[in-house]
Amino acid sequence: MARRPGPPGSLKVYRCSPFTGCVLTVTHNKERILNTRDSIYRQIRSSLVSGEFSQNDLLIPSALGEQFNASRTPVREALALLEHDGLLTRETRGYRPRILTVEELLEVFEVRAVVESSAAAAAARKYGDVDLAHFERYLRGAGPAGDPSPVPGEPVGEERSEELTRADLNSWHEVVRNAAHNRTLVDVLSRLDAQIRVSAPWTLLSGTGDARPLASRVNEHMDITRAIMDRDASSARALMQQHLDRDQEARIGQLVGAGRRAHPVI
After folding, report:
1. In this structure, CATH architecture of domain 33-97
2. What is the dihedral sign for C-alpha 242, 248, 251, 253?
């Protein structure tokens, strides 16, 4: 019996089994390309925000296609999305990481502070039981060693401070953003964070010293967390704004100390 051809733009594959025989299945090329594109996008984005690429690295579509064992279409679409996110800049032969100037970074920091302080206020109004559990877990983990209920403003113990990492601090920001229950807000902050990490990765600044002790940042997190748990939206907003203003000052100061020019030299 003749088989009916698949629709245009589809891939016909015979899947065989000793029990059922061979069955023709149809996979739409568009769906397959989109899945591949999204996978490539996530992998390249992860490499960018983790600082694996320098500003002089050139991302060539054909080479990436070989690396990911993919055709040019999903690779080019993934790179175009990353360019749209502000993480890449297009050149003749490919793409390079987009390194923001100090002035551009200041703009990004300013917008992030406005949006994330709004997220803290929204979290105070909207958080649910699951969010509350995350906040309580953070307070137990970030408090002074051996103290399950730290007192506001009390210094974080040195032993506990050493256990906390930057990843812990970043995960706290994700908890606050998710508690705001606003997907658009989360997506905007994710894009802004990525731009900051590509242009000013902490690995670049590791030798310049940290002007902001870990204990100070953790205590600020704890104060914001308590304001959110008390459903004090006004205080949560103000404390988050102050926290991010301090981080901006320290981060820009490190960049200037590391010799970042106002306009990057390629």
Report:
1. Orthogonal Bundle (1.10)
2. negative
Which range has the worst mean pLDDT, 22-26, 49-53, 137-141, 244-248?
A: 22-26
**3-class DSSP state of 195:** helix
Q: What is the CATH number of domain 102-201+208-257?
A: 1.20.120.530
Write the pLDDT tens digit of every residue in 77-106. 999 999 999 999 999 899 999 999 989 999
User: Hey, where are the domains in the chain?
Assistant: 33-97, 102-201+208-257
Distance CA 177, CA 159 (A): 28
What gap in Å lies between CA 258 and CA 261, rounded to an integer?
9
Tens digit of each residue's pLDDT (9 = 90 or more) over 177-213: 999 999 999 999 999 999 999 987 654 444 444 556 7
Q: How far apart are CA 244 and CA 69, in angstroms?
A: 41
